[in-house]
Input
Amino acid sequence: MNICGRKFFWQNFLVLAVGILNLSFSQDKGLLDSAPPTPANQAPAAPFNPDPPDKATGIGSAMVFSWSCYDSDQGDTLSYIVYFGAGAFTDTLNLYRTTSFVANNLMAATDYVWKVKAIDNHGSSTMGPVWHFRTY
Output
């Protein structure tokens, strides 16, 4: 076959098809469909929807803290590291598959900060924003 004045043989088209269609060729089985490429792991979303909400006031000496988070990769599991403290991140808490924790004995009339880092089972992570609250 001639294309643009050049001779091509069926082998040239097979090589072209293999390259364009991402197919593989086996000597004993002929042309095989290759598996689609595995998508790269995506990091989890940044934690969001905190409770108490950012800049909340009037929080008592004990509080259940919670947030929302997800990972767009189907089947990924998430764990979390919570950074927490009065004015600075002095404490950390490692949580597995739970999006809440209880803080007791919070000091009265004190400004607190907290943030959450989400980590998927592949080691990809995303740090959430810093949230603030004040106790009464």
About this structure: The chain has two domains: 2-32, 48-135. Residues 2-32 form one domain.
